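Lecture notes, unit on protein representations.

Consider one protein chain, 167 amino acids long.
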Amino acid sequence: MVVSTEKRDVLGAIEFRRLMARFDPFESEPVIAVAVSGGADSMALALLADRWARRRKGRIVALTVDHGLRDESRTEAREAHRVLASRDIDCKLLSWRGAKPASGIQAAARDARYGLMVEWCRRYGILHLLIAHHREDQAETILHRLSRSSGGDGLAGMAACREVAQV
């Protein structure tokens, strides 16, 4: 028998409400976009955000981006949407079209993903976009910044809340 001693931080509905309260005030019936990759972190965020929004007579829209880099990505997005739609959550599939760069594909895909989601939010008047990041994402961000000689600023991970001028 293997017993894991790894401490896991699990975010439940009560703690999620506390975190969201830090960003009040929200409109009376908020509509919130949630970036959904199909991974556990973004699916959990979508479910927590949906519960939070419904308590306020609001709703969420799950946004998934098909980067067109892998044949199975559209199928994976549809599976995530099937799960969320079974919970009466609206889902939109956004596609990154056009030529892809030969190098720097990860950064280009990230920029395209955020650009597509911000543009969609702006087009439909959505004021809030939630994006899930787990502890490893934060650590990777810090290491990446330090490797680029960002100095003291590199010691900070991603901000919990960031305004995007275009939205």
